[in-house]
């Protein structure tokens, strides 16, 4: 029973991880662009 509960929650966990990665990448984009502009 516990295994089925975990399996049912895996999609939400993986989507949460993907969301966090997307946010990190967008943060890096925001941080990286001004630095690249200053360097150029």
Automatic annotation (TrEMBL):
Q: What is this protein called?
A: Dynamin stalk domain-containing protein
- Output the superkingdom of the source species: Eukaryota
Q: What does UniProt list as this organism's lineage?
A: Eukaryota, Viridiplantae, Streptophyta, Embryophyta, Tracheophyta
């Amino acid at each position: 029973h516990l295994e089925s509960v975990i399996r049912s929650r895996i999609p939400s966990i993986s989507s949460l991880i993907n969301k966090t990665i997307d946010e990190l990448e967008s943060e890096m984009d925001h941080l990286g662009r001004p630095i690249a502009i200053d360097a150029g």
